[in-house]
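Researcher: Quick test of sequence recovery. Tokens follow.
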């Protein structure tokens, strides 16, 4: 199977053509790097110079696509050029091949070439001087350094800067990606928090409205209908107030008005009274101290959602709400009669239990909900932070 080399880069073609034409011009003018009387000139005349020149120009076509092959072939060509009268264009193209091999070649070659050319430069300086004991012999090392080590060192510096720029670009892309991920997670978390707040605030009132509106439509008694409409109005007004509070939290407070404060555990008595007005038989037992605002809000919402579920699903009977603080945790438990019903008294989305579980998980607590004998029990333990006063 034949080896197919990649198509040369356009700039490499320009370099090869320019070097070849320049070398031909020098040959035509009779300008060489050595005279025919030089001891190392084995092939006299201008025509032997053309062979290394043409080979070196061909290597320039591969300086970017196959830099190692180009450098190895170019080394053979520059060695052959030493046996002729020489051509400055051949030497310049060889220096470019050394530079390109370091810049475009594999990392291993890029590390080795500067060391190899450096050692050759030192050897080309010391060995001829030790043999001939002439100061002019030092010029061999100088020429070797200019033609080999200088381009190799330059290529390594340029490659190092290029790799640093690429690494900086990758780091910038990774930073932007992480920032976008953080932004997406923050948006998702905020949307989930808003969904929990909206569900917990509105579901209780809308469930009561749905249940009592059904009763008002199904029972043809003016007194019962009037009582149901009164409950509907109370829950509508309360739900509207909760919605305004949420909108006030979401909107920038640029005006003089401030959003209503978040509900606290002191508001549980009013919550229970509303649940009793909606038709539940609820008892409240609280024994707790002061807790942090997040724990207080989570406990309130858990009780509120549990009473909403009892209003929709519980069998007739007493609902018990108990809060107790001990051993650094606030224990919240709501139990309602559990049994078989034809269906819920009001439709639900099933998001209530999910929202309560998420609230507890965010605070590092535990949450359980399920049948407990003849009751449906919801229990949550919320850690009380150390900074809270007892």
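Model:
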């Amino acid at each position: 199977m034949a080896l197919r080399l990649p198509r040369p880069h356009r700039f490499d073609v320009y370099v090869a053509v320019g070097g070849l034409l320049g070398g031909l011009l020098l040959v035509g003018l009779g300008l060489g790097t050595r005279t025919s009387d030089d001891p190392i000139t084995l092939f006299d005349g201008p025509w032997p110079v053309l062979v290394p020149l043409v080979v070196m120009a061909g290597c320039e076509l591969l300086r970017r696509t196959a830099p190692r092959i180009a450098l190895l072939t170019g080394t053979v060509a520059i060695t052959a050029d030493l046996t002729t009268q020489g051509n400055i264009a051949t030497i310049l193209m060889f220096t470019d091949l050394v530079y390109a091999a370091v810049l475009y070649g594999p990392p291993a070659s890029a590390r080795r070439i500067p060391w190899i050319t450096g050692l050759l430069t030192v050897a080309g300086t010391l060995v001829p001087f030790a043999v001939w004991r002439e100061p002019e012999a030092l010029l061999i090392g100088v020429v070797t350094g200019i033609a080999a080590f200088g381009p190799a060192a330059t290529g390594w510096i340029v490659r190092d800067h290029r790799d640093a720029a690429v690494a900086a670009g990758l780091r910038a892309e990774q930073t932007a990606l992480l920032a976008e991920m953080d932004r997406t997670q923050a948006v998702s978390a905020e949307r989930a928090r808003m969904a929990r707040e909206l569900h917990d605030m509105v579901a209780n009132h809308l469930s009561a409205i749905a249940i009592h509106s059904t009763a008002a439509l199904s029972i043809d008694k003016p007194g019962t209908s009037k009582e149901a409409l009164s409950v509907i109005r109370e829950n509508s007004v309360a739900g509207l107030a909760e919605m305004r509070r949420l909108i006030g939290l979401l909107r920038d407070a640029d005006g003089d008005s401030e959003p209503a404060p978040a509900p606290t555990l002191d508001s549980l008595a009013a919550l229970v009274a509303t649940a009793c007005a909606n038709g539940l038989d609820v008892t409240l037992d609280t024994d707790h101290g002061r807790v942090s605002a997040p724990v207080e809000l989570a406990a309130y919402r858990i009780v509120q959602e549990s009473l909403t579920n009892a209003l929709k699903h519980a069998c007739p009977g007493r609902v018990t709400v108990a809060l107790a603080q001990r051993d650094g945790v606030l224990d919240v438990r709501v139990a309602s009669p559990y049994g078989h019903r034809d269906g819920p008294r009001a439709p639900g989305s099933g998001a209530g239990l999910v929202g309560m579980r998420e609230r507890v998980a965010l605070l590092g607590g535990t949450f359980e909900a399920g049948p407990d004998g003849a009751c449906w029990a919801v229990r949550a333990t919320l850690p009380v932070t150390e900074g809270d006063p007892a």
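The first helix runs from residue 10 to 29.
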